[in-house]
Structure formats: C-alpha cells, structure tokens
Design goal:
Elements lengths: L2 H13 L2 H8 L3 H15 L4 E3 L4 E3 L1 H25 L7 E6 L1 H6 L2 H10 L4 E6 L2 H9 L5 E4 L9 E15 L13 H5 L2 E4 L23 E5 L3 H9 L5 E4 L4 H5 L4 E2 L5 E10 L6 H17 L2
Parallel strand pairs: 3-4, 3-5, 7-8
Antiparallel strand pairs: 1-2, 5-11, 6-9, 6-10, 6-11
Helix pairs in contact: 1-2, 1-3, 1-4, 2-3, 6-11
C-alpha cells in the first residue's frame, strides 16, 4: 500500500465512479482502476464491488475509506501548520443558499480578497442533500445553510446566529380596504412560501412560519428570497422576510409589518468532520459569523 494508491482509492470511494474519480484526479480511468486493483491485492481484500453501472464499497472498503480520510486530513494539517498564517487556497469552494450569498457573504468575501488577492471563489447554490453529499466528497470546502435538517454524522454543523423575520406585505395587497387586524386575518391573505420539489409539507417551512399550528393560505411557492421580496412589494402576496433585508422599504412605507409572531432563520456553518481548513479560511468564517450576529437577534 502506498499513498498514491490510497489517494486514488479515496477518490473512487467518494465518487463511486471510476471515470469521475479519474477526472477529479487528472489521470486516466485505466490508471485509477489499475491502482485500486494493486491496492486490493496488497491488502488481500476486496474494497469495491463493481458492476457495469454501479460501484459500491465493501465493509473493508468503508473501513479503509475512513482511515484514508484521517491520513490525508493529517497530511493537510501538517502542511497548513508549516505554512501558518500565509496559507490561503488557490480556490475556495463554498456551498450556500441565495439569501446567504446575496445578503451576508459579500463583505466577508471582500475582506478576504484584500488579504489574499490570488484566491478565486466558487459559490454554489445547493439544497440540503446536495450540500451534504458535496461536503462528504470534499467537492466544496464548507457550506452555509439556514436549516440544521442535514442529520449526517460525517458533518460538523454549528449555528452562527438567528435572523429576525416578520410577515410583510404591500398596502397594495388590500387595495384600499383595511389591513388585517390580527394573525388569523393575516393567515387568510395569499402567501408566497419557500416550498421545494420533493419537500415534505408536514415539515416546518424554511421561513419559520408556524404552518402546523396556524396554516396560512399559500398561493405561491418560490425558492428564492428575492422572489418573495418582489411579490410582497408588488402587492401579489404576503411574505416572511428578514427584517434587515427590507429595512429601507419598511421605513419608506412600501411594506407593512403585519400582526404575527417574530419569526427567524438560523444560519448554520457546515463542513466535513475532521476536514482541516487554513487559518485564513477560519478567519473568513469568523467574519461571516460576525456579520450574521450584527443583524441577528
């Protein structure tokens, strides 16, 4: 067993596909296949089961994958320790959601770029399952999400703060009539809600609305916060919006805050458990956390 064989095996174990693993490694598929075969011969065990369509890990393969991740994490920790504060990745890949990307990451990205101008950034909008899979396979370095609904023991998840939200609507929604006087009347308004394909209606909504106790009239569904904000401003629907996002529109009277509970979205940081990050990147995450706490409650 050597480190090259172990590295190639780890990539196959993460991708469960020889072709994709070879592309990620920048070598040919036959070279990856040969290396894994030599590794299996050296340990005297089958690490993968292969069919024409599927590659799966055996029990021995699962155990070796866990060892390989620890070994390469230790190597990366040693490299980062030697480089110290000077370490900054050539490419930083971040999983995120539209609201976090558009309203919270900007100042932190600018601050990091001033200190490390050579670093390039990839920010990828991912759902919870896609983000978990990308983190496990090291396809992204870390992620931010506004739900802890990713119960994966392979991931480290920690809260960065909770954003205050309320129910907002444009006075155009009641078109000259009186605004709703209580929460019951608010629930009868047409709402836009953040439902997603294949989501479970019985699960709590991502905008924090208590639909289980007080169902609202959901007439529109939209994934992006900017869609919710636009529908509210145009008088199409009521929406749950973070207070800091629509502060100006609220002050100008273009949006009214409606009766109802204070709601919120908690923002979480996620990474693969045990994955080392450069100190510069840890500093970037601290800046993001500070910006969230600045608008949190």
């Amino acid at each position: 067993m050597d480190l090259y064989q172990l590295r190639y095996f780890l990539e196959v174990a993460r991708a469960l596909n020889f072709t994709r693993a070879a592309e990620n490694l920048g070598i040919s598929t036959p070279a990856v296949s040969k290396s894994v075969a030599l590794l299996e011969r050296s340990v005297g065990l089958s690490l993968l089961t292969r069919t024409r369509r599927l590659v799966q890990l055996t029990q021995a393969g699962e155990r070796l994958k866990a060892h390989a991740e620890k070994i390469y994490d230790s190597i990366e920790n040693a490299r980062l320790d030697l480089r110290g504060e000077a370490a900054a990745p050539a490419m930083l890949k971040i999983g995120s959601r539209e609201m976090i990307t558009n309203y919270l990451l900007g100042p932190s990205l600018l601050d990091f770029r001033k200190k490390h101008p050579a670093t390039r950034f990839g920010v990828y909008e991912l759902g919870p399952r896609e983000m978990a899979a990308a983190l496990r396979k090291d396809q992204i370095d870390f992620g931010f999400y506004y739900s802890a609904e990713i119960p994966d023991p392979a991931l480290e998840i920690r809260s960065l703060g909770k954003l205050s939200s309320h129910i907002y609507a444009s006075p155009k929604l009641w078109r000259g009539g009186r605004p709703p006087r209580d929460f019951k009347e608010v629930c009868a308004l047409p709402f836009i809600a953040p439902r997603y394909f294949a989501s479970d209606p019985a699960e709590p909504s991502l905008d924090g609305f208590p639909d289980q106790e007080s169902p609202r009239h959901i007439q529109y569904e939209g994934e992006f916060l900017e869609t919710h904000r636009r529908y509210a401003l145009d008088g199409i629907a009521a929406a749950v919006l973070p207070d800091f996002v629509i502060r100006r529109e609220y002050r100008e009277g273009r949006l009214a805050r409606l009766p109802g509970p204070q709601l919120g979205r908690e923002i979480y940081f996620l990474k693969r458990r045990g994955r080392p990050l450069p100190r510069s990147v840890e500093g970037f995450i601290d800046v993001v956390a500070s910006s969230i706490k600045g608008v949190a409650y």
